[in-house]
Design brief:
This protein is mainly alpha-helical. The protein is built from 18 helices and three strands. 55% of the residues are buried. A three-stranded antiparallel beta sheet has the order 1-3-2.
C-alpha cells in the first residue's frame, strides 16, 4: 500500500507541475459558465393581443440561482430537441455501449454478469436520482451539498392551462404559449425534466465505469449496495462541488465542462479503491485471462464514441456554436489518442492491437471531456496525444509495477486520463469560448486533489463496511466456475 501511494503521488506530481504561464489569473475565482445555458429568447413566441387574461402580460424571468417556473413559450425548441437527443446518446453510452465494451473484455464465463452490472446500475441509479440524487447535486444548498427542494423531483412540473386553452378556441398561436414549466437555473431554455434526465445519464455511467476494476469477482448484492451508497454520498456531492454555481469548486474557478473530474477522476479513483479492497482475481498473472470477444469490445467502444457527442456537446445545454466546438474537439482528440496509443503499443509490443486502439479512443474521450467547452482544435490534438501515451503506460507499466488488479483498466484510463485532461484544461482553456473564464493549472489541481482524496477515502470506507456486513467477494469456487452461473444461473453457449 505504501509503494502504491508513493507511485501514484509521483505520477500525479509529474503531471501537475504548473508551467510558468499557468499562474492563477486575476479572475480565477469567478464561477465557470460551463453548465449554464444562454438567456431565454423572450421574442421567440409572444402571445398576440387576443391572449386570454389568464396569461400574464410580462412573463416571469427565470431565476439565475435556483430552479423556477416559467411560461411554456419561453422554452427554446431547438435547445430542447438537442438536449433530448443528447440524453438518449449518453444513456446509450452505458446500455449498450459500456456494457458491450466491458463484456467483451472479460472471460466468457463472466460476460452475462458484466452486462448485468451495467443494466442493473442504470435501473438502480434512475430511481435514486428521482428520490434524492438530483436534488443533492443540482439545487442550491451549501458549497458541499445541495438541498432537498427537489426530493422525489417535487416541483419538476409541466402544467397546461386547459381553461385558458379552451377560451382561445381557434387561436392556435395563443394556445401554443399557454402553460407553465419548471426550468433549472443551469438550463433556462429547456424544461427541467429534460435537464434532470440529461444529468441522470451522467449519474448512471459514472458508477458503471467503476465495474471495470472489480470485474469477475464482486458479489452482485455487494455491488448494488456499493453503487447505491456511492451515488448518494460520493457522486452527488462532487457533482454539486463542480457544477452547481454555489459549489466550492465552481466558485473557485475549477473548469470541468462535461465531467473530467466529476465523472472520470471520480469513478477512476473509486475503481482503484475497489481493486485494492477486493484483491486480485484467482489466478491473476498465473492463468490466461484474455478477452473472450473483442468484437463486442470494439462495438462497445464505437457506441461510446458516438454517444460521447451527447456527453460533451450536450453539456453546452444549448444547440449553439459552443456545442459545435465541443463536438469538433471531441472527435479530433479521440482520433489523436487512439493513434497515439496504437503507435506506442506497436513500438513497445510489436503489434497494434484492436484492444489497444479501442482503449486509446476511450482515453482520448476521457481527457477531452473537461476541456471540450474550453479549447480549440489544436490543443485538442495535444490533449489527445498526451492521453493516449500516458494512459497506455498507466494501464500497462504502472499497473504491472505496482501490482494491483484493475481488471479492465478503469483506473488507468479514466482516473489518469481524467487527470491529464483536467490539468491540460488549465493550460489551454481559451477565454474566447466562455466569455472570459481563463484556466489555471493550480486551480485545476485543487479540484483534482479534492476529488482524489474524497473519492478514494469515502469509497474505501463504504467497501469496508459492506465487506464486514454482507461480504464483498464471491467464493473461490464461484469465481472459478464463473459469475454467470454462480450468481445468475445462466451462461452463454
Amino acid at each position: 500500500m505504501i509503494t502504491l501511494s508513493r507511485s501514484f503521488l509521483f505520477a500525479l506530481l509529474a503531471l501537475s507541475v504548473p508551467p510558468a504561464w499557468a499562474d492563477p489569473p486575476a479572475d480565477a475565482t469567478s464561477a465557470p459558465a460551463a453548465r449554464s445555458a444562454p438567456a431565454p429568447e423572450t421574442a421567440a413566441a409572444v402571445a398576440p393581443a387576443a391572449a386570454p387574461a389568464a396569461a400574464p402580460a410580462t412573463p416571469p424571468a427565470p431565476s439565475a440561482t435556483e430552479p423556477s417556473v416559467i411560461l411554456n413559450s419561453q422554452i427554446n425548441s431547438g435547445d430542447t430537441a438537442w438536449m433530448l437527443a443528447s440524453m438518449a446518446l449518453v444513456l446509450m453510452m452505458t446500455v449498450p455501449g459500456l456494457a458491450l465494451f466491458y463484456g467483451g473484455m472479460v472471460r466468457k464465463k463472466n460476460v452475462l454478469a458484466t452486462l448485468m452490472q451495467s443494466f442493473a446500475i442504470t435501473c438502480l441509479v434512475t430511481l435514486l436520482w428521482y428520490v434524492i440524487g438530483y436534488s443533492l447535486a443540482f439545487t442550491p444548498g451549501t458549497p458541499y451539498i445541495g438541498g432537498l427542494s427537489r426530493l422525489f423531483m417535487n416541483g419538476v412540473i409541466y402544467i397546461k392551462d386547459v381553461a385558458a386553452a379552451a377560451a382561445t378556441k381557434d387561436t392556435p398561436a395563443v394556445e401554443a404559449v399557454i402553460g407553465k414549466v419548471s426550468v433549472s437555473h443551469l438550463g433556462v431554455t429547456i424544461p427541467e425534466t429534460v435537464y434532470s434526465m440529461f444529468q441522470l445519464t451522467f449519474a448512471i455511467i459514472t458508477p458503471a465505469l467503476i465495474c471495470g476494476a472489480f470485474a469477475e469477482r464482486m458479489k452482485f448484492s455487494a455491488m448494488l449496495w456499493f453503487m447505491a451508497i456511492w451515488s448518494i454520498i460520493v457522486y452527488a456531492p462532487i457533482a454539486h462541488w463542480m457544477w452547481e454555481p454555489g459549489g466550492w469548486g465552481a466558485t473557485a474557478g475549477v473548469l470541468d465542462f462535461a465531467g473530467g473530474t466529476v465523472v472520470h477522476i471520480n469513478s477512476g479513483i473509486a475503481a482503484l479503491a475497489c481493486a485494492l479492497a477486493l484483491g486480485k482475481r484467482v489466478g491473476y498473472n498465473k492463468e490466461p485471462m484474455a478477452p473472450h470477444n473483442l468484437v463486442l469490445t470494439l462495438i462497445g467502444a464505437s457506441l461510446l464514441w458516438v454517444g460521447w457527442f451527447g456527453f460533451n456537446a450536450g453539456s453546452a445545454v444549448a444547440a449553439d456554436g459552443r456545442a459545435g466546438m465541443a463536438m469538433a474537439v471531441t472527435q479530433i482528440a479521440t482520433a489523436a489518442a487512439a493513434l497515439a496509443w496504437m503507435f506506442m503499443e506497436w513500438a513497445v509490443k510489436g503489434n497494434p492491437s484492436v484492444l489497444g486502439i479501442a482503449s486509446g479512443a476511450v482515453a482520448g474521450l476521457v481527457a477531452i471531456t473537461p476541456a471540450s467547452g474550453f479549447v480549440m482544435p489544436t490543443p485538442a490534438v495535444i490533449i489527445g496525444i498526451a492521453a493516449g501515451v500516458i494512459c497506455f503506460f498507466a494501464a500497462t507499466s504502472l499497473k504491472k509495477a505496482v501490482g494491483y488488479d484493475d481488471s479492465l483498466d478503469a483506473f488507468g484510463v479514466h482516473c489518469i486520463g481524467g487527470i491529464v485532461g483536467a490539468l491540460l484544461t488549465g493550460v489551454f482553456a481559451s477565454t474566447a469560448l466562455d466569455g472570459g473564464q481563463a484556466g489555471s493549472v493550480v486551480t485545476q489541481l485543487k479540484g483534482v486533489l479534492a476529488t482524489l482524496v474524497y473519492g478514494f477515502v469515502v469509497s474505501y470506507l463504504i467497501l469496508k463496511v459492506i465487506d464486514v456486513t454482507i461480504g464483498l467477494r464471491v467464493t473461490e469456487d464461484q469465481e472459478r466456475e464463473g459469475l454467470d452461473v454462480s450468481l445468475h444461473g445462466e451462461h452463454v453457449e
